Amino acid sequence: MLWVIKIIRVQFFKDGTASYFESGEEYDMMKSRFSFLTRVLDITVDKAKQML
Q1: Following CA atoms 48, 17, 43, 30 in sequence, which dihedral angle do they give, to the nearest 10 degrees?
Q2: 6, 21, 22, 24: least surrounded by Cβ within 10 Å?
């Protein structure tokens, strides 16, 4: 039996904002997991459109 697997790449166009933060609860959690961090990038996606 021969199986053929087709891989489909799904891409998205994203629109939103991003900012760095260097303190706070989420920063402390990330810093405890990755001690080398100096800041964390926070990305907020406002709109995403799937492109085939």
Answers
A1: 180
A2: 6
In three-state secondary structure terms, 29 is helix
Long-range contacts of 45-50 (CB under 8 A, 24+ apart): 45/14, 45/15, 45/16, 46/15, 46/16, 46/17, 47/14, 47/15, 47/16, 48/12, 48/13, 48/14, 48/15, 49/12, 49/13, 50/10, 50/11, 50/12
| Cross-strand pairs, 15 | 47
Closest CA to 13 of 37, 40, 47, 44: 47
